[in-house]
Amino acid sequence: MSLAYGKNRNVVLPPSVNRILLVKNLPFKITPEEMYDLFGKYGGIRQIRIGTEQKTRGTAYVVYEDIYDAKEACDHLQGFNVMGRYLVVLYFQANFKSKKLDLPKEEERVEQLRRQFQSMRNDEETEFD
Fold first, then answer.
1. In the beta sheet, which residues pair with residue 47?
2. Which residue of 37, 42, 95, 102 has the lowest C-beta tally within 10 Å?
3. Is the pLDDT of residue 4 over 50?
4. Is there a contact between 24 and 58 (Cβ–Cβ < 8 Å)?
5. How far is it, in rounded angstroms, from Cα 88 to Cα 23?
6. Residues 40, 45, 51, 52: is their CA dihedral positive or negative?
7. Helix runs in 45-91, H state only
8. If we measure between CA atoms, which residue out of 85, 77, 68 comes closest to residue 38?
9. What pLDDT, in 10s, does the model give residues 67-115?
10. What is the rounded end-to-end Cα distance, in angstroms, of the chain?
């Protein structure tokens, strides 16, 4: 049973809150069992993925069964000291990365819309002359 079951279940959560947490600044030597012990206190965990590559070391994804459990964990573990490191716990935002990667494509789309708007504006001006 999670900590959140007794209260605040009818609270409307902001759209940024979801079941997947991104955890940064983890100790490199933390084990999956320690992760389950630490994050399992706040509710049922569906999956934990710990980064093992050079680029992803010190990060993990924690997927909870329930969104309220994820919120409790995020609220309580943000800044928590684990083996001398302070955790950074965020809600995972899938679309944030994709928007960041498609910046040149988005700039081209905006430029096309500007040209289209400008041509429509020019057509309206000639229509009233």
1. 63
2. 95
3. no
4. yes
5. 6
6. positive
7. 67-77
8. 77
9. 999 999 999 999 999 999 999 999 998 775 545 556 788 888 888 988 8
10. 73
Between the alpha carbon of residue 33 and those of residues 1, 49, 98, 116, the distances in Å are: 19, 12, 32, 57
Which amino acid, one-letter code, is at 115?
R
Helix %, strand %, coil % of the chain (to 5) = 45, 20, 35
Among residues 40, 37, 39, 43, the alpha carbon closest in space to that of 6 is found at 43
Number of helical H runs and strand E runs in the chain: 4, 6
Token duo for residue 20: 């997947």
Q: What is the DSSP letter of 19?
A: S
Question: Tokens for 27?
Answer: 């100790």
The whole-angstrom separation of Cα 96 and Cα 26 is 22
Q: How many CA atoms lie within 13 A of 74 on its CB side?
A: 21
Taking the C-alpha atoms of residue 45 and residue 79, their distance in angstroms, rounded to an integer, is 20
C-alpha–C-alpha distance, residues 18 and 90, integer Å: 10
